[in-house]
Specification:
Elements: H1 2-13, H2 22-28, E1 32-36, E2 43-48, E3 54-60, H3 65-80, E4 86-88, H4 101-114, H5 117-127, H6 132-139, H7 143-152
Parallel strand pairs: 1-3
Antiparallel strand pairs: 2-3, 2-4
């Protein structure tokens, strides 16, 4: 479900340029994106009430840019998957012992949104781009995120 939902968002809102711009996709979907200092929190998704209210993603401007991109895509996943308001834990507090299927679904959505399987597979199969650092640069994601993506797609 998260992957199909991300693909639907890409089909509807993506301009087909790399790297995928999660802010542009969020805006096209009617979601506000706000950068602010959030302390140890990476990001949050909430529905704001009122005249100018609606869905809002906040991300931590103090985080590295690549982390911000993933956080925005992750929080957009909460919106797209209709999870309701969510607060994302910091990377320091993440633990496999605290596995949350809702957070895992938002991560799968984010990975597909930022690194669409069809595009990753096409670059590997058609352009023979096999270096994960090169792929990470093309998609503007961390090399660690790209390694996970390639592993999940069966390339590693």
């Amino acid at each position: 479900m998260p992957i199909r939902t991300a693909q639907a968002f890409l089909d509807r809102y993506w301009d087909r340029k790399l790297p995928v711009d999660p802010v542009a996709i969020a805006h096209a979907a009617g979601v506000k994106v706000i950068g602010e200092a959030l302390g140890t929190l990476a990001g949050k998704f909430e529905i704001v009430e009122g005249i100018s209210g609606g869905p809002v993603i906040s991300y931590n401007v103090l985080d590295p840019t690549l982390r911000q991109r993933f956080t925005i895509a992750h929080e957009l996943g909460h919106y797209a998957l209709q999870h309701g308001a969510r607060f994302r834990d910091s990377t320091q507090s993440f633990s496999l012992a605290n596995y949350d299927p809702v957070e895992a679904a938002a991560n799968k959505f984010a990975a597909e949104l930022l690194m669409p399987a069809a595009v990753v597979n096409g670059l590997i199969n058609k352009r023979n781009i096999t270096d994960f650092n090169t792929l990470a640069q093309l998609f503007n994601v961390s090399s660690v995120a790209m390694k996970y993506r390639l592993k999940n797609l069966g390339w590693l």
